[in-house]
Amino acid sequence: MSTALPFLPYGRHHIDDDDIQAVVDALKSDYLTTGPRVAAFERALASATRARHAIACTNGTAALHLVARAMNLGPGTVSIVPTVTFLATANAVRLNGGDVVFSDVDPDSGLMRPRDLEEALSRCPGGRADAVFNVHLAGQTGDLAGLYTIARHNDLRIVEDGCHALGTRYSIGDGEEHVVGQCRYADATTFSFHPVKAIAMGEGGAITTNDPDLAAIMFRDRTHGMNRDAASFVQDDEAFDAGHAPNPWYYEMEAPGLNYRIPDVLCALGESQLRKLDAFCERRRELVALYDELLGGRSAHLSLLARTPGVTAAWHLYVVLIDFAALGLARADVMRRLAAEGIGTQVHYLPVHRQPYYRDMSPAGILPGADRYYARTLSLPLFPGMENSDAVRVSSTLLRVLGL
Ligand SMILES: *Cc1c(COP(=O)(O)O)cnc(C)c1O
């Protein structure tokens, strides 16, 4: 009699007793939200990413939205977004009223290349755009220095959607090692702390930046546009009493904001998880090396993801590229057969320009790299709590199902 093996999802969180204790301590404290744990988490994240400012917020989508608002990417502006990404990267711009032009990606890595950025620019009205959102798909970055040169030459703001890449290091361009979030080649970087991401907060997100003006706007916008910094008040008659002391109840609003605040309870979890980031990333890299060994060089129809030289990725996803057409297999059938054997897989992503909402805005068939990537991509289980034996089982089952 065989015992059913546990189901392996494509990704999941890893929570230890000390994470639980940190949450319990927060629950017993004076603050459930807007207390000291938010600032403590922001300091820890800024330190981990070597950024000057970190702004924590409700989720990765809110982080992208705050950036789009702070950069004034509203009506009349154009932002370039690679089409192989999660919906939120493009939606953040659309929700703020800006236009999106989708760029193609490398068919073998899913990453935007400098030439993809140039080609997308050539399709923008008048050949110009306002911003580019670069996505570190699966956890690795592309040619950041090459993209930076083109972006700056064309006066683009640069946002890195680092939701897959907390913990990724790179040595690109200047020969020094940097980390994602440091904004060496960007104005701002966004992160998500959804349970499948590098660290888990249930829901959570953040922006890192070295630009104090952007940071100040996002801190205010996160909480209704409220400003409590007396030094920058503009209405002296309302703000100050007869002795020129700020009125204790007074706060000021120059532009309406949102409530994208993240509770102290979740920041307690985030700070505890952040202490394990290096260990989590190390375990992910070990599992990726094992998968590479088990699946690499097996067949011309099964390729490993192309790697960017100089990048030590945190690996959010383990992606393989399978030529389903050449193997005479349907991807949906392969996924169902793997699921029947307890192996969860996922497709990251249907190119966003092929969604009904975006279809009419972006003529089909002009993004061949993305189409070729999408046709072959499959994400296999990868998370720090996986055993080596799990990766062995996934690999052998996949090869059997593919007939390789
Ligand atoms: C997860 C993710 C987001 C959104 O983050 P949420 O926390 O789920 O809102 C945005 N972009 C990418 C690339 C992501 O993977």
Overview of this structure, please?
The protein is an alpha/beta fold and 404 residues long. The chain has 15 helices and 15 strands. The protein has helices at residues 17-27, 36-49, 60-70, 87-95, 114-123, 144-153, 212-222, 236-239, 264-274, 277-295, 324-327, 331-340, 356-359, 368-376, 388-402, and strands spanning 53-57, 78-82, 99-103, 131-135, 157-161, 169-170, 178-179, 188-192, 205-209, 226-227, 252-253, 302-304, 311-312, 318-322, 377-380. The strands form four sheets. A seven-stranded mixed beta sheet has the order 1-9-8-5-4-2-3, sandwiched between helices. Strand 4, helix 6 and strand 5 (157-161) form a beta-alpha-beta unit. Helix 2 runs parallel beside helix 9 (264-274) and helix 3 (60-70) packs parallel to helix 4 (87-95). The longest helix is centred in the last third of the chain and has 19 residues, at 277-295. The model has no long low-confidence stretch (mean pLDDT 96). The protein binds pyridoxal-5'-phosphate (PLP). Pyridoxal-5'-phosphate binds at residues 59-61, 85-86, 88-89, 135, 161, 163-164, 192, 194, 205. Pyridoxal-5'-phosphate is lined by residues 59-61, 85-86, 88-89, 135, 161, 163-164, 192, 194, 205.
Summarize the structure.
The protein is α/β, with parallel strands linked by helices and 404 residues long.
Bound molecules: pyridoxal-5'-phosphate
**CATH fold title of the largest domain:** Aspartate Aminotransferase, domain 2
CATH 4th-level superfamily of the largest domain: Type I PLP-dependent aspartate aminotransferase-like (Major domain)
Biggest beta-sheet profile: 7 strands, mixed
Shape: globular
* Rg from alpha-carbon coordinates: 22 Å
Strand count: 15
Low-confidence stretches: none
Strand order of the largest sheet: 1-9-8-5-4-2-3
What is the CATH architecture term of the largest domain? 3-Layer(aba) Sandwich
CATH class of the largest domain: Alpha Beta
Question: Helix amount, in percent?
Answer: 25-40%
Number of domains: 2
- Kindly name the structural category: alpha/beta
